[in-house]
Specification:
Strand content: 35-45%
Strand order of the largest sheet: 4-1-3-2-5
Number of helices: 2
Distance between the termini: 33 Å
Shape: globular
Number of strands: 5
CATH architecture: 2-Layer Sandwich
Oligomer: single chain
Radius of gyration: 12 Å
Helix content: 10-25%
Number of domains: 1
CATH class: Alpha Beta
Largest sheet: 5 strands, mixed
Length: about 90
């Protein structure tokens, strides 16, 4: 099964609403690896890696995120798969 990776920039009201925790949980349920972090500009950045169907499903779910989030848009860019084995929260950047 081919592994793909996508770099996401999630914009809107996505900080202070448990978006990072939601991301870790949602990615885990889909068997994805990668990381997520808050950015100083108020956005959330993530690298999602795994089977194409699971990555696509995650991006669809991420349009909504947790109940308090208001996602304005997600910028998605192809990325090189790094062979990550887990999903983690990184410090803010």
């Amino acid at each position: 099964m081919a592994v793909i990776a996508r770099h996401l920039m999630i914009l809107g009201r996505v900080q202070g609403v448990f978006y990072r925790n939601w991301t870790v949980e949602a990615a885990g349920k889909l068997g994805l690896a990668g990381w997520v972090r808050n950015r100083m500009d108020g956005s959330v950045e993530a690298l999602i890696e795994g089977p194409e169907d699971a990555v696509t499903q995650f991006i669809s779910l991420a349009q909504h995120g947790p109940p308090a989030a208001r996602v304005a848009r997600i910028d998605v860019v192809e990325a090189a798969a790094e062979g990550l084995s887990s999903f983690q929260k990184k410090p803010s950047y």
